[in-house]
């Protein structure tokens, strides 16, 4: 871990964050190639420190900044989420533990045409039993529908698509979402008919939103500075 600091991958103040990161990577290394769904998952590095180097230097989707955010917010709330097939720098990102399991769960999305409003989307379904019950399909009919990608319901052809997992939005998306929220909150305040209680609550919410926007902007700036600092390391062997 000290070597990562010495060669400029991270700062000395990050040592506890790096220690927590290395611990999570050890978990990745330990479960890859094992049963319970990890048989075909590869750990793409020779050591956990080589992996930590790659994660921090290649810095996919503000990984360095999100590591700091997760550590400051409480590392026990977060896990390393694998978006791709293997544990590699372009795949791994932090994700809240409370939603991590659901993100990896496959689900089925049923779509169908509507002449009035065009192509619409029905609810997504976490398991086949829900679909069968909703549309009155037998087990055999449902399997055929999934294989064909469509089935008929009340004279309408519906498509059914298997979604392997959902993707955690990027840090920039987080920032964009908060800025949109701030805009809506300011619009609420400009309403001449707003009640006193609503005005007070909205003003408090604006303070919280501004603080979160400032934190995201700070993290992004720190991440950009980090990238500038380690740019000379890119492409070099982490060993």
UniProtKB/TrEMBL annotation:
<protein>
    <submittedName>
        <fullName>Uncharacterized protein</fullName>
    </submittedName>
</protein>
């Amino acid at each position: 871990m000290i070597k990562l600091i010495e060669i400029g991958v991270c700062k000395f103040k990050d040592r506890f964050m790096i220690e927590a990161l290395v611990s999570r990577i050890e978990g990745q290394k330990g479960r890859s190639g094992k049963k319970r769904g990890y048989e075909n998952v590869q750990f793409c590095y020779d050591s956990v420190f080589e992996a930590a180097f790659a994660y921090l230097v290649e810095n996919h989707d503000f990984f360095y900044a999100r590591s700091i955010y997760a550590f400051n917010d409480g590392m026990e709330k977060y896990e390393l989420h694998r978006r791709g097939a293997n544990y590699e720098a372009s795949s791994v990102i932090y994700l809240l533990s409370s939603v991590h399991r659901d993100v990896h769960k496959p689900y089925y999305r049923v779509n169908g045409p509507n002449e009035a409003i065009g192509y619409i989307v029905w609810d997504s379904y976490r398991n086949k039993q829900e679909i069968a019950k909703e549309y009155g399909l037998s087990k055999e009919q449902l399997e055929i529908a999934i294989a064909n990608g469509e089935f008929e319901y009340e004279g309408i052809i519906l498509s059914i698509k298997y979604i392997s997992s959902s993707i955690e939005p990027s840090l920039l998306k987080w920032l964009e979402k908060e800025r949109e929220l701030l805009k809506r909150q300011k619009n609420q305040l400009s309403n001449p008919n707003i009640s006193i209680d609503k005005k007070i609550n909205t003003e408090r919410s604006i303070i919280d939103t501004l603080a979160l926007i400032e934190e995201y902007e700070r993290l992004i700036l720190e991440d950009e500075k980090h990238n500038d600092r380690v740019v000379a390391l890119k492409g070099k062997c982490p060993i």
